[in-house]
Amino acid sequence: MPNSLIFLVIFNFLCCSSIASATVFRSQERHSVQLLNAGMGSLEKRLEAIQSARISIEAEYFYLWKDPAGRLFLQELLKKARSGVKVRLIVDHFFLSAKMGAVEGEALSRLGKGKFELRHYNPYPVPGFLNHRNHRKILIIDGRDAIIGGRNVGVEYFDLSARYNFLDRDIWFSGPIVQALRSDFESYWNSFLTQDLFPAQGLTSDDGSGWMDNDASLEDYKKVDKFTEGLFPVTPKDIILRNEVRRLGQEQLEREYQGECHNITIATVPPRLRIYVKPLFNPIDHTLDVLGDRTPVPHLSNVIPNPLDLYSDNVFFETDIVKEVYQRMALLSEGDRVTFENPYFVPKDLVARGIMTLLDRGVKIELLTNSLRSTDASPIVSIFNKRSKQYIKKGLDVAVYSSLPLPGAPLINEEVRNARWGIHAKTVVVGEDQTIIGTFNMDPRSNNINSEIIFICDDQPDLAAAVRGSIQERTAHSAKITPEGQLDWPPSLEHKSADLLFDVQAKDKVLFHLIGLPSSMMDFLL
Q: Does this model's pTM top 0.85?
């Protein structure tokens, strides 16, 4: 990239990039809501929503895999584009190479008769920029209906993988606040960070035989183009899968909570570079985190009676997402409870101190997260196993997932049932009537680097009870960590080992211990 372009990118970030963008949207009007706990039900709801579109569709995902679930999703989008509906898709560039993505963008535009546009978020190969990713997952239909949650588009998110599946959670909602969400999508769509890579950049056809490039083989481009071009016509396999998703998905949707919310908040961050520099300015806190114990050493910075008081509109270094979550938690007192379901739980800085403060108050805090057996990110579990001890001793109620499918869950075949399963939902239930669902992990990356988004419904005890019930159903298939660091399994799984590293091969245990210290030192990059 030329130096002049690098300068322009940096200048845009620091001076011009959506500094004044609104990042919190509120509405106290009536909205319909539906929980999406089950995987195939969540995919079916997305496909049904796309089919209902008449004017426009906006979609934004961290990644969209080129697999059977991705095929169904893109086929429905293309059908709508071919019928005249305007379709816009943003995918984070991290999982796509620029040139391969350009070929896909051209093909999707052509197959969608000019009504389908694909853009990439942050394609710039500039040090520092590469670590900033768009982790948001959004689907918007006609500026009227929307889905926000933890799921990307891929078989593992919709209970369709024979290898590994996520237990996740989304929420569908319909009402006036969707227009504000659509405006927020526009800010990302028009950002300097979001680029249309069609026509293909850096590709030549010097011999008339097709795409050529010095950095990748022609065969790679043929593979990508083959996938995109192969979206139509729909194959018999596509039809069989679509029918199964419809059958089982609709069955799952009938059992999901449906209701209303009259007090909604959506919080996000603007599309601009975010670099995590807190360890440089606050090395004491970072050192305490690396050591895995904050309790015996007094904090030498920001010492105040209640760290949660810092989550106010005047705090510059905290995002609106963090403020919205912890402003609600700051109101909790002895006897209240807060329930987390999060796959990557690595609290730092004010978040860590806030949790300590709540535990000292006598607030009951419950956490469902991954074990080493159920995770897709072993470095995170290595950090968690070390740092969680201090919280557990203070009363944090921690459950780690078993890696098995939920009993009685309707699944497409036995291969899926025999796969490994893990937690991926990013959910908080505060008190008895506040529900938070979104893409925000309790880790430094979500807090300080990524673009994230959350949906909050206040003053709705029925929704909060339904979400907490879903978390408890998953917790019942998990093991509690005792203060002694052992696992306490429910009766149905009491045959399992009490070791934190249960059902893990010896070589994986060795690797797990080797990555512990480096992972903890570099936690802000994971």
A: yes
